[in-house]
Design brief:
One of its GO terms (biological process) is mitochondrial translation. The chain is of the alpha+beta class. The chain has a single domain, classed as S16 Ribosomal Protein, Chain: A. It has a three-stranded antiparallel beta sheet with strand order 1-2-3, covered by helices on one side. The model has no long low-confidence stretch (mean pLDDT 86).
């Protein structure tokens, strides 16, 4: 799940908003599915929210942000 929390220390409390979901199980086409609410993510980034590295990689692959350098490294190693 992709959530917005007020602060990193408050992650034991309920999240403020769900911004998307991530299904780690692969489908029959060997794909992992991600749903992202781009409008809300852009809103929270504009409000100064920090974004975790895994989410930065997902947003880079989806085209919202530039591709994260770690994505290039992972692709190079798996080729």
């Amino acid at each position: 799940q992709i959530y917005y929390f007020q602060t990193k220390s408050n992650q034991k409390k309920p999240p403020i908003e769900q911004l998307g979901s991530f299904d780690q199980c692969q489908n029959i086409f060997n794909e992992k599915l991600v749903t992202v609410n781009y409008e809300r993510i852009q809103y929270w980034i504009g409000q100064g929210a920090s974004v975790s590295r895994p989410l930065l990689e997902i947003l880079g692959i989806s085209g919202l942000l530039p591709i994260h350098p770690r994505t290039y490294i992972t692709a190079w190693r798996k080729r």
